[in-house]
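Notebook, bench 3.
Goal today: get a predicted structure for DUF397 domain-containing protein from Nocardia uniformis so we can plan the truncation constructs. The sequence was checked against the plasmid map this morning, with no discrepancies at the termini. Length recorded as 71 residues. Pasting the sequence as submitted so the record is complete.
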Amino acid sequence: MEAKNRDIEPDAVWRRSTDSGDGVEIAFLTSGNIGLRDAKNPDGPVLIFTPGEWEAFVAGAKDGEFNRPRS
């Protein structure tokens, strides 16, 4: 397992999709990792992804891997 820098620099620039007013925000960190947080709770927890993990996450989202199951 790769060790990750879990520190979020205070001047990180958080970006939000223009399509999702209350969705998530991402920041490309100086460590090379990507932070993901809830836009409604910016002081809450942050998920940290390595570049490879981020690519896999985005590919899964585009492929519908995280869609809710239909009942």
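The radius of gyration is 13 Å. The longest helix spans residues 51-62.
Flagging this for group meeting.
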